[in-house]
């Protein structure tokens, strides 16, 4: 029997609310099935199960908010013996934490229950590491709902009351803005970024897209982002140190090119869910995945893996932006590629000044994992692939 | 199909893509993408939905004729009307 836990869906998630139980008690589950929907700061996330078996019981009710790592349900793996019969009383499952009913008395200052210390068979939850903090700092953090793992420890590795006090001073922001703030603040605090910029000639890409789309119905048309994604995946073949996760002081290279695509959610913020296996998909499959993802992002509905498993991010300003951008790496990733808005520019080609459509291609990467020299080669490789769009 | 019917379909599809934008408050003569803050993938989604709903072909080469809400409605009315 194993516990199905509230997953960590990115560096910025502390807790989630179970909003749908999609499998009843006693129902069969298969690896990859979506069995629950969890509401987070980024929207409703569909949660997959990672084993075959039977759902023995839900431990958390619909509508309950629980910390990352809390068991949501118990799952008996296929082949495991039956649960004990009624005459042999089964051990009570741990009672789900129910918020106390509202009372007219003084407001409760009880902290949220810390996540139970359960080793996860599926994936590590680095967020569960408890930082060293003074007792006073811990108390204040619990009272103010501050996650100590978000705070930068002092040189001696501890967090003190004043650090928590400083962090508590900020006024509350809307949920998604808070999530972005937490992830980006952690990135700027922990990741030694370096930045590179390159003038990219996108004339061939835009010509290819226009030609290809001319005689195709709208549902089969491409946008340049699909080509950018494919070119990145190709370049990552040769420069794998730009895709992966930096966790616990070491870099873990990616198992595939799962490229996060930054999607602007008008007025609400930004998300960068992953397009999976871009290295193993053709251009039409990548385009279909982009469309599907953007539509679901607009509706605020993602799958869990999409938010946790991206190994590098692409942020493209599209047609209405500015020349270029320098991205902030989304932890625990180690690189982010930016593409600015293409514009006609005078260029020197074979000694002649000619008009070409140019865009600024940038890279922000983690100096703990790579150096600017390799970063430059990586950007050049993206450029080279984009000059032969028909081969993507 | 009447112009009114076409406009109803256009409004419904725009609402699907940008549900947070009040269509009555946009400037129909201003660039559609600015008014609705939509990107190229949204435009493609819109064109896909409109060509299906109105059973017309909308080639990419015609995009310059659909800069504003009013232009787009004129374009659709001329093709599907």
UniProtKB/TrEMBL annotation, chain A:
Keyword field contains Acyltransferase: yes
Domain of life (superkingdom): Bacteria
EC number: 2.3.1.-
Family statement: Belongs to the 2-oxoacid dehydrogenase family.
PANTHER family, alphabetized: DIHYDROLIPOAMIDE ACETYLTRANSFERASE COMPONENT OF PYRUVATE DEHYDROGENASE COMPLEX (PTHR43178), LIPOAMIDE ACYLTRANSFERASE COMPONENT OF BRANCHED-CHAIN ALPHA-KETO ACID DEHYDROGENASE COMPLEX, MITOCHONDRIAL (PTHR43178:SF5)
PROSITE patterns registered for this protein in UniProt: BIOTINYL_LIPOYL (PS50968), LIPOYL (PS00189), PSBD (PS51826)
Record keywords, A-Z: Acyltransferase, Lipoyl, Transferase
Comp. bias intervals (Pro residues): 83-124
Gene3D superfamilies, alphabetized: 2.40.50.100, Chloramphenicol acetyltransferase-like domain, E3-binding domain
Name the UniProt record assigns to this protein: Dihydrolipoamide acetyltransferase component of pyruvate dehydrogenase complex
Uppermost EC category: transferase
Region (Disordered): 79-140
Complex formation: Forms a 24-polypeptide structural core with octahedral symmetry.
Essential cofactor(s): (R)-lipoate
Domain annotation Peripheral subunit-binding (PSBD): ranges: 132-168
From TrEMBL, chain B:
Protein name (database record): Phosphopantetheine-binding protein
Family matches, as InterPro entries: ACP-like_sf (IPR036736), PP-bd_ACP (IPR009081)
Source superkingdom: Bacteria
Domain Carrier: 1-80
SUPFAM superfamilies named in the record: ACP-like
Xref: Pfam families: PP-binding (PF00550)
